[in-house]
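Q: Got a minute? One more chain.
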Amino acid sequence: MEATFAPTRSVREIDAGPYCIGGPARTPHVVSQVIVPARGAGVLPAPAEAGHYRLFVRGGAAAQLEVEAGAPAQLTVDGAALPSDERLRLGLGGTITVTNAGEAEHHAKIERVAWAQQAATAREVTSMPGFRRDFSSDVLRPGTALRVSRVALFFSDLTGSTQLYSDVGDAAAFKLVQDHFDYVLAITEKHGGTLVKTIGDAVMAVYADEMDGVRACLEILSGFAAFRKRAAVTGHTDVKLGLFSGPCYVVTANGVLDYFGQSVNIAARLQSEARSGEVVLEAGFADDAVAAGVLPEGWVRQRYQAALKGVAQSIGAVRVKPE
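A: Always. Here it is, folded:
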């Protein structure tokens, strides 16, 4: 998926056309290239550095290329039938001969593939707070669903808020709920997350990086006691959180991007499993966070099998509460 940004026409007109990502001067991904004549052959020298590359013949196919010491010094391939299902091996200082049995010349090249990791993916762009604020209604036409392979889905709930309306009145309770939104969303955006929507006194947000979601959850829980001290009224309020990472669908609903699918349901159910001051995570996700040094092992309070409504099989879950 490609995101395109342009000034409004009232500012200036721009020329539409295809451009290389970053430009060839800034992203020199082409290592070597050759024009392969009709019914002829062209020779490509191997890259000077070992690593992963791609052999590409315009109008033909592409193949993965591994350049490494000890590999064959010469390869000959048919430019019209590159082995896309296997990785070619080529030695340092070697050459690839690309043959062309057709009547038209071809352009063959060896490209670096590491530069593609620098591209902004749809998952990353659509989870940026600024993008959602300014462009979320311009992304997908109604009825179009975009599948995202993995995203971290966050749900929070303010506990004790219903009783607070009765104890202190609507105005004071409503102000606390709004202040709580500001508190949660400031930490969410600080860690690279973005608000999807609020539901009553609950928050739904997404993170492109699931470990950023864990960091945000821990900071929200750790700082909530201080937030309560600053608030004019709090009663017995607290927060409980749920975080789950998995695939889902993105659609335009009510004019903004929204997320749907079983991963969303699981994240919401995990939040309902949490007690005040806790975040509930899927067990494997929590183990990854501990291994990465994001989640202190001592904050993991309970491991159990969670039977979630609407989910056929129980899920290994972890209760996390900051010390």
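A: The chain has seven helices and 16 strands.
Q: Perfect, thanks.
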